[in-house]
Design brief:
two-stranded antiparallel sheet
Length: 153
């Protein structure tokens, strides 16, 4: 167990620093990569979604005009979802959309692990969710019902 958030283990076992700083460092690198990618990559689909949001705001005809040389082929709901993003500059909207997507993935992975019956035996540092999806290390065994437990004789 770690003591007081220092990352050091109790009782001299394990000696040295825990893995928390490495996890936070990896999380920082991952988020930086997502931000750089979102700011530099010019995804055509995202631009068309943004155009749909602008079309809803401007009361334009969504399906009668070309957006960047392509038709808007998505549902009207997709255009309505992008109305809040239409007020933002394109690069800011892309970064925000990608960060929301990463957060949704982390939440989904956490829920999947919980629904599978695993409960963490210790608090996990933020951002370690990706590892949780692929590994159950540090988690207890799935919970069983009280009726399936054997009573001692």
């Amino acid at each position: 167990m770690s003591t007081g958030g220092t990352g050091r283990s109790e009782g001299g076992r394990g000696g040295g620093w825990g893995i928390a700083p490495a996890v936070y460092g990896l999380l920082s690198v991952e988020l930086a990569a997502v931000v750089v990618f979102a700011a530099t990559y010019n995804a055509l689909d995202f631009r068309i979604y943004m155009w749909g949001g602008h079309a809803v705001l401007d009361d334009s005809r969504l399906y009668l005009a070309l957006a960047y040389g392509h038709w808007f082929t998505y549902s009207p709901f997709a255009a309505v979802v992008f109305v809040p993003f239409a007020a933002l500059p394109l690069a800011v909207a892309r970064v925000g959309w990608d960060l929301v997507s990463v957060a949704a993935l982390a939440y989904s992975c956490t829920r999947i692990v919980q629904l599978a019956g695993y409960r963490p035996t210790r608090p996990a540092p933020p951002g370690s969710t990706g590892g949780t999806c692929s590994s159950t290390r540090g988690a207890s065994a799935p919970r069983t019902s009280a009726t399936s437990r054997r009573t001692p004789r």
